[in-house]
User: Fold Response regulator transcription factor from Massilia solisilvae.
Amino acid sequence: MIRVLIAEDQTLVLGALAALLKLESDIDVVGTASNGKDALALCRQLLPDIVLTDVEMPQMTGLELAIQLADEGFASKVMILTTFARSGYLRRAMAAGVRGYLLKDAPADTLAAAIRQVQAGGRAIAPELALESWNAGQDPLSDRERQVLRLAGEGKTSGEIAKQVHLSEGTVRNYLSEAISKLNAGNRIEAYRMARDAGWL
Assistant:
């Protein structure tokens, strides 16, 4: 049996995915979580073979979850299932060691087949995303620039961001300025939108 943990913040989607995968004779849904931090705690407890996660989730994103699992040396293979058909997300997912990247509008049998493929040691990437990623530009942002820009896009001030990420306010402003410059944006909000639309956040 392939032991799968599902992390998805939309309750209806989470329930549907679990019900769908439980129909497969060789897949066992061992746990579900509605945010990244709960998913991490369950991974430590249940040691699933596959972690099926969305990209954007409260408390910890799917990509942050993948990085944390890799840092802790887990053998669990991470697969992203998302609505975000953006090459920037795919590139960051691959850099984080993610083994699969599928879109939520894919046929149901595609998901089960992809899980089996990843469990067997392969990769499973939505074909349309793989092609787009090949043609897309590189992400110019550093991890820290991405972090402060995401928080700025949520409406936080430089002072609030500084407290949250344990940096000085001046350093936060420098990171924001660098991000704005790299993206040729007019201000932090425009930079946030550009980076978000490219899948770099």
Summary: The two ends are 35 Å apart (CA to CA). DSSP finds ten helices and six strands in the chain. The CA atoms of residues 153 and 193 lie 8 Å apart. Residues 143-198 form a domain with the Arc Repressor Mutant, subunit A fold (CATH 1.10.10.10).
